[in-house]
Backbone:
């Protein structure tokens, strides 16, 4: 049942700011809120559900050590995204 007090934000960032200000409860992906949760700015009272989504790095050829994109690949692997 709705009481007509729902808010809609043009960007996910604004919904996060509403939550930080104590005026909203957004639903969003872990990757976009993990820093705020780790720092204690936000909490995830219901946890997160694995949805199977992931990031992919696409390149025309394998990225070898020394390639200009190798640092990006290493960072992505280390970050667990």
Residues:
């Amino acid at each position: 049942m709705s009481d007509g007090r729902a808010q809609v934000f043009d960007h996910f960032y604004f919904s996060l700011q509403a939550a930080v200000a104590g005026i909203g409860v957004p639903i969003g992906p872990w990757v976009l809120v993990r820093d705020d949760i780790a720092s204690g700015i936000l909490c995830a009272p219901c946890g997160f559900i694995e949805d199977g989504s992931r990031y992919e790095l696409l390149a025309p050829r394998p990225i070898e050590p020394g390639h200009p994109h190798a640092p990006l690949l290493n960072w992505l692997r280390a970050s667990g995204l």
